[in-house]
Structure formats: structure tokens, C-alpha cells
Here is the input.
Amino acid sequence: MPTPIRLLLILGLIAARLPAAESTSPRIDFEKYNPTSTLVVPETPITRAKFPFIDVHNHQRDLRSQDLGALLRQMDELNMTVMVNLSGGSGASLAAAATRIKSVAPSRLVLFANLNFSGFGTEGWTEKAAATLAADHTGGARGLKLFKGYGMNTKDQDGKRIPLDDPRMDPIWAKCGELKIPVLIHTGEPRSFWDPMDGKNERWLELILHPSRRQSADRTASFDQLIREQTNIFRRHPRTTFIAAHFDWHANDLQKLGSLLDELPNMYVETGAIIAELGRQPKAARKFFERFQDRILFGKDSWVPSEYATYFRVFETEDEYFPYHKKYHAFWAMYGMGLPDGVLKKIYYKNALRIIPDLDRSLFPE
Here is the structure.
């Protein structure tokens, strides 16, 4: 009987005499692997919302020169009755855009003002910013938008990060409450942008394709710190209405978000860029929407009209296992929540009508 070592040598000789196996399978990168599902299930593609809706999170280029007629026609195709442009700017540029809107589509386009943090911390900055905001409101702004740089990398005059809950901003929040205009604040980024870049990170592909989105507590605050700072603002200013952009980046943790909404009655959320999270947990998401139906607003973020179909399908149908429109956000499939009409109407327009001043209610059904 051959010894184990001799047996291995014999097997090695046999293997050496066998023809080498030729690989016939083509190689494909993970980023390109996007198989078409063979699942046969009912499909209800929707390109137009069931009810007229208000998009509270949009960004448009200069409305002073843009073809507003073409924009309105695109909105009509989606059944979008009102678009809130969060990039309204401030001062003369905002006033000029507001004047043009009044001449073309006074009820269809709404502007939110923005702050200029240049010189933050110098004597009189806060008072000047509050006065400018009041003037912007008079000039046509119906809210204030804070971009994601605030809290993360916006610096004061000494080059230090401005915390979200910096007390020097308190007069601004108070002024919004006084004017009865909402503050839509984009705080941080998805938690995964701070997580290790490895095979366990759900946003790995996005971070590979867009490395500038990678975050680190060494460069800015941590995700948890940013949320704590934002929550401090909401607590300190109960008379001011705040809309946390992107579902407060907690669409993947509805239990946590629910606890914040329970604690903070002046906090609202909007759905911009998080439909992929809702679409993979339709049962839990529907329960959440039914529970907090008075606190959720429709938002999309980027202006790509074809992508609204995913939102409509997730909200309005009970379809199963359909693709998301942007793979690097989500490599999983979507499922419809099948929201009741009463909840849909609140998400699509009723909640926005309640908290954004001077919208034309006659454009919407009761």
C-alpha cells in the first residue's frame, strides 16, 4: 500500500498529465453585475402621482434665467403642483428670482432662503444675518434651508467648526419662529459614510465611486454628535418648525427616528434620497407612516424627473421586488408600501400646506 506521501505524488503526476481546464466563464466586476430578475410578479409602473403633490426638497439653477415654462410642463407630467427650491440664495438674487416667479408661476414655485456664514463670529454677524433673513422673507422666501456643510465643515472666523447648536445661531432659529417659516436642515450624511470601508459597509460602492463622500470623525464631528447637536436646537426652540432633511438619515432606524419625533413635536421629516431604505422594509415603513402621518413631507432632492416613478411606486402600490433607479445607493430591490389615500394626501400635500406659509390651497383637493 502506498504511503500518504507517495499517494500525493501519484495524484500530482496524474493531475500534471491532465489537460488544463479552460475557463469559459467571463469575468465581470461587481459594479457591473446587475442581473435582470426572473421573478414573475404583478407590476404597476407609475409615472404620475395619484394626487397632486408638493416637493419640499428640490434644487434648481438660477430661476431668473431658467425656462420656467419647460419646468412647469415637466412638473405637470409628474402631477407636481408646487416645487420648493431650497437654493433660493439671499438678498438681491432671491428678490429677483421671486419677482420672476410672480410674473410666470406665482403659485407653483416657492423659494427658501440660505445663510451666508462668511465672517461668522465677528461682532454683529448674528444681528445682520437675522435682519437679512427677515428681509428675504419680505422679498418672497417662505422658509430657510441649511446645507450639509453647516455642522460638518463650515468654519467660524477663527477657523473652528461651527457646531450645529452654536448659541450664536439661536437668534436665527428664534427669528424663523417669529416669522412662522420652517427651517429645512440637512444634518450630516448617512451613518455608513463614517463606517469602515470594507465588505460589510452597505454604501461601499457609492463611496468607491464618490470618495469625497467618505466621512471621518477626525475631519468633522461623528454622526452621533451631529444628531445630538441638531436635537439640542430642536429642544431649545420649540416654537420653531424644523424639517429634518433625508428622514434625518434615520430611514434605516425607524425606531430611533420615532423616538425623536415623539420627543420633539416641532420636528418633521422629508423623504429626499431615502426611498431605497423605505422600499426594502415596506411593512415597517407603512406602520411608521401611518403612525407619523402628520409629520412626514414629500421630498426628492435631485431634479431627475424619471426617478420620481420609484417614489410613486413605493408609496402607492404593493408591487414586489422591483429595481431601484440608482444602484450605488441600493443594490437591493424595492417593495411597495401601499399607503392608504388618506395618508398619501398628507404626505403629498396636506402637511406641507400646514407648515409652509402662503401656499395656494385652492390648487389641491380637500
